[in-house]
């Protein structure tokens, strides 16, 4: 569980190991992330950053999925 306050920048990372190196993608309850969020996937490490979070957005599951 990650706790954050309203207005915070929410950043989380996920590491995937495999051959070939997996791409990390992020889902919000198996749907799309808010457009204000940015994602990167470099060398099997994925980072999700969402500025100005609100309670209703992140009171649910955020998933890291390897492709």
Furnish the topology, listing elements before pairings.
Elements: E1 10-15, E2 24-28, E3 38-42, E4 45-50, H1 55-58, E5 62-66
Antiparallel strand pairs: 1-4, 2-5, 3-4
H and E order: EEEEHE
The proportion of residues forming helix, as a percent range, comes to: under 10%
Helix run count: 1
Low-pLDDT stretches are: none
Give me the side-by-side strand order of the main sheet.
Answer: 1-4-3
Overall geometry comes to elongated
Distance between the termini: 23 Å
Query: What is the count of β-strands?
Result: 5
**Radius of gyration, CA atoms, in whole angstroms:** 12 Å
The portion of residues forming beta strands comes to 35-45%
Whole-number tally of structural domains: 1
Largest sheet: 3 strands, antiparallel
Return the average pLDDT rounded to an integer.
83
Secondary-structure content class: mainly beta
